[in-house]
Predict the structure.
Amino acid sequence: MGRKKTTVYVDADVLTATKVLPAARQGSESQVVEDALRAYLGTAASQAAGADLRALMERAAQRADREEAGLGDEAAMGLAVDQVRAVRAAGRAGSTR
């Protein structure tokens, strides 16, 4: 994937750290910024995955409640398939690639 140029505004101390760190590591400012963004976005994705898992567990608990109320295997499987499709669709909608 090709690189794109962008302009961002940051606090002076953040900019200074962005310039000092690559000098110490013999790297580039752009690599420091890119690494930081990737780490931040990875953390955000992990948090989103955790929220998705909690929501899935909640739906599974609701499904168990429905089973106790007489929901059959076919209906339960239908709910599971619907949930998998919803999660996949949400993943595609959130993907920028």
About this structure: The mean pLDDT is 81. The chain has one domain: 12-94. The two ends are 10 Å apart (CA to CA).
